[in-house]
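USER:
I would value a second opinion on how I read folds in token form. Give me a protein, with the fold worked out from its sequence. Write it directly below this note and I will take it from there.

ASSISTANT:
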Amino acid sequence: MRQGQGLVKGSLYMLAGGALATGLRYLYQILAAILALAILGGVLSFAIARNITKAVAECILVANRVAEGDSSVNIEVKSKDEIGQLLAAMKNMVETIRALVNDAGTLAQAAVQGKLDTRADAARHKGDFHKIVEGVNETLDAVIEPIKEATEV
């Protein structure tokens, strides 16, 4: 009986050892998969952060150039996400500023050429820009009216 018990006991140890080896193999596979996913997650996080950082840096560059009075900046909208929406809004802002600068340049050039009846179309502008153009037009009217009266006398 003892010999039979030893055989059974040996078989159990072999089974247990095989199960342990199989369990360890699965454990290593799971750990390898977790490590691979962690590395993949890190790489994806880095790539996403880099793209966002580049886009925000472009917005900062554009904003600083416009703040310095450079309305010649060219803005390309490449996406429809939040950064793309921000760039589209900045593009609209730059185009609005260009229109204001254009009208101011037209008025100045006309005044230098003696075309004192030239006015900018304030309706093309909104908000404070409308007020600025309207104010310049009214200022020209106020300055030119006495000149017209003096020349008529």
User: Anything to note?
Assistant: The chain has a mean pLDDT of 86. The chain has three helices and no strands.
